[in-house]
Design brief:
Length: 260
């Protein structure tokens, strides 16, 4: 079923502290927290944080586990890497559920993929089966990646969301990158998927900036400003997801977030 939530919540990702557990209690107060890549031995501290803040939270996979490669490979033609991604996703989803998470976010499809994977019928069926298993564990939100030549349009995502009955976490940075690579309008992308969106990840990216900053907090492009004007009116989870490697303009992102 597509997104029916009509609640606007301001969230913050622990990417802002690069999952440094020592900085956890310095996070601003928010309606919602999204945990990223912590270590298994740090979950007791996370549990204390959850009890103290008394706020809902989501988990960005793989959370306390790791994929065989740095990034997930859900649509790679390499059977071993693909199965590893599925196994880690299931393990992570079960652990997130046990911890009390409201939802999980996972990247889909494989980023920077050139192969025409959608022609592989058995792979597509495997993907659909995997999502069915995941959503029987916990709420699943698919996050758009970038540079997948075979799957990047709004209608590609619309197809998969309808097939699996999940919602979408639109990553603004990845969307800006793909709109630059494949020359499409990012606002149109959001409009096509609007009924299925349950979350936005907010930070800035373009091809040049992305080589210097993992998730730059702010940028001056007209595309970015237009996206911010559009997404601030959505009644969904608005989660800021800057990294801490380029902190220079973080206050501009925080000011936008606080003013939503």
């Amino acid at each position: 079923m597509h997104n029916m939530k009509k609640i606007k919540r301001k969230g913050i990702s622990t990417s802002i502290i690069r999952a440094n557990i020592d900085l956890l209690n310095f996070l601003p107060y928010a309606d919602l927290y999204e945990f990223t890549f912590f270590k298994p031995e740090e979950t007791e501290i996370l549990k204390s944080f959850i009890l103290e803040r008394k706020k809902p939270f989501g988990v960005h996979l793989p959370f306390v586990f790791r994929y065989a490669q740095l990034h997930p490979q859900p649509t790679t033609l390499d059977d071993k890497l693909r199965k590893d991604t599925y196994n880690v996703n299931i393990k992570s989803a079960l652990y997130a559920k046990e911890l009390g998470a409201e939802y999980i976010v996972l990247h889909f499809p494989t980023a920077k993929q050139k192969e025409p994977w959608r022609k592989n019928v058995s792979l597509v069926e495997e993907v659909l089966s995997h999502f069915e298993e995941l959503k029987n564990i916990i709420e699943v939100r698919i996050e758009n990646v970038y540079m997948n030549d075979d799957f990047h349009s709004a209608f590609d995502y619309l197809y998969i969301l309808k097939e699996i009955g999940c919602t979408m976490c639109v990553d603004v940075g990845h969307l800006l990158l793909d709109s630059e690579i494949y020359e499409f309008n990012p606002v149109n992308f959001i409009e096509v998927l609007s009924d299925y969106i349950s979350e936005f990840h907010i930070y800035y990216a373009d091809m040049e900036t992305y080589t210097k900053c993992h998730h730059a907090p702010w940028g001056d492009s007209e595309k970015f400003r237009e996206l911010l004007r559009v997404i601030k009116d959505f009644n969904v989870d608005l989660v800021i997801e800057p990294s801490n490697d380029c902190p220079e303009r973080l206050q501009e992102l925080i000011a936008f977030w606080e003013g939503i």
